[in-house]
């Protein structure tokens, strides 16, 4: 057991960080006190903290530690500890990251631009791989970004239309198109008014193209219907 000189509470030696300068090989402050003090120093002087982190990242000690973590016998134990720590602090870390980006948007923008430029091909390959594995999420995101329709609203519209195109009545599962490479592209189109942006309904790609060719003009569509009917009757 050892008494923390900060909070004056006796704790097991495992509750103190290691220190080569201490007679018992442990720091004088317990882990919670040492961590709280380090966070306070970082908040008081963030520039000094970033500079210290950069120096440590470039040091030989850090390189040796990283190699030991990657290749040493404790690799799986360390990875599991990291996973557990990430789960415990996931929400807190996300909140702090949002606050940091909001406080210094230009610095983060520059950082992400440098990172993208240095790893462009790798990032694009990862994005393509993720998009292929998450097609429905990509489609849902694009629908919401382009038309403001959420996944729940999209599913509700499909149910309201009994799973069919609102114009020609073709079943939704028959709307998939085969494209180059053997992959499948959904033929379900979110039809909307190009003047107001209001979503009208879900239609197949054929009907959507037809409306586009006729410029969404009811008069043209009626004239085309009359034209087809005229020659159907004569034949």
UniProtKB/TrEMBL annotation:
Bias category Basic and acidic residues: which stretches?
42-63, 70-100
Instruction: Outline the segment boundaries, as ranges, of region: Disordered.
Output: 42-100
Q: Which domain of life is it from?
A: Bacteria
Protein name, entry field: Recombination endonuclease VII
Which organism is this entry from? Kitasatospora kifunensis
- What InterPro entries would the database entry show? Endonuclease_7, Endonuclease_7_sf, His-Me_finger_sf
